[in-house]
Design brief:
This protein is α+β, with helices and mostly antiparallel strands and 82 residues long. The strands form 2 sheets. The protein has a two-stranded antiparallel ribbon with strand order 1-2. The radius of gyration is 25 Å and the shape is elongated. 0% of the residues are buried. Belongs to the iodothyronine deiodinase family. Keywords: Oxidoreductase, Selenocysteine, Thyroid hormones biosynthesis.
Length: 82
C-alpha cells in the first residue's frame, strides 16, 4: 500500500495495489449483474409479465392481468399497511 502526501486541506490518500477497478473479480461481478438483468422477465418497452397469483380466501389461481380494466392502469402495491 502506498501513501500519497497531502496538505492541510486534503488528508493523505492510501492507494492499494490489490484494489483495482478493472480486476478480474470486479469484471466478473459486472458481467454477472448484466447477465441477471438480461434474464429478467420484465424489460423496458415490452409487455408486462402476466404472473400467476393465488387468492388468499379460496386458493383460486388467476393471472395478474385478469384484474386489469380497459383503459385503466393496474397498480400493484407490494408494501405492508401497518
Amino acid at each position: 500500500m502506498k501513501e500519497q502526501e497531502g496538505d492541510a486541506i486534503d488528508p493523505p490518500v492510501c492507494i492499494s495495489d490489490s484494489n483495482r477497478l478493472f480486476s478480474m473479480e470486479s469484471l466478473k461481478a459486472v458481467w454477472h449483474g448484466h447477465k441477471l438483468d438480461f434474464l429478467k422477465a420484465a424489460h423496458l418497452g415490452h409487455g408486462a409479465p402476466n404472473s400467476e397469483v393465488v387468492q388468499l380466501g379460496d386458493q383460486q389461481r388467476s393471472r395478474i392481468l385478469d384484474y386489469a380494466k380497459d383503459k385503466r392502469p393496474l397498480i400493484l402495491n407490494f408494501g405492508s399497511c401497518t
